[in-house]
Amino acid sequence: MKVRTRILSKFISDYRSKGIRYTICTDIEKDGMLQGPSTGLYKEILEFNDINLIASGGISSVMDIKELSQIGCEGAIIGKALYEGILNLKEIGKLC
């Protein structure tokens, strides 16, 4: 496990033990860049934590959302992609 993931997992685990079931994780290096999410990071977090993870940062396509869903993310924040018109709600609604 990478150091970054170990720190995040400890942080999440502490809150999980207090009853928190959902968490949002934003990779700030990817946030607003529209260059794809940190799927590897989110996958590692999910491997070591029993949490409903909402991914954020870099999401720019329906494929990004599908990939996050496939690794087990509960949701995704698509702020800039929606704002810039790269993704639209009808397109995303087809995933449901």
Can you summarize this structure?
The chain has helices spanning 3-16, 39-48, 62-71, 79-83, 89-93, and strands spanning 22-26, 52-56, 75-77. With 96 residues, the chain is an alpha/beta fold. Strand 1, helix 2 and strand 2 form a beta-alpha-beta unit.
Name the features.
single chain, 5 helices, 3 strands, globular
How does this model look, in words?
The protein is α/β, with parallel strands linked by helices. It is built from 5 helices and 3 strands, in the order αβαβαβαα. The chain has helices at residues 3-16, 39-48, 62-71, 79-83, 89-93, and strands at residues 22-26, 52-56, 75-77.
Task: Describe the secondary-structure layout.
Layout: H1 3-16, E1 22-26, H2 39-48, E2 52-56, H3 62-71, E3 75-77, H4 79-83, H5 89-93
Parallel strand pairs: 1-2, 2-3
Task: Count up the helices.
Answer: 5
Could you give the distance between the termini? 32 Å
**Low-pLDDT runs:** none
- The total count of strands amounts to 3
Order of helices and strands: HEHEHEHH
Shape: globular
Q: Beta-sheet strand percentage?
A: 5-15%
Class by helix and strand content?
Answer: alpha/beta
| Biggest sheet statistics | 3 strands, parallel
* Rg: 13 Å
| Helix fraction bin | 40-55%
Average the pLDDT over all residues and give the rounded result: 91
Give the strand order of the largest sheet, numbering strands 1, 2, ... along the chain: 1-2-3
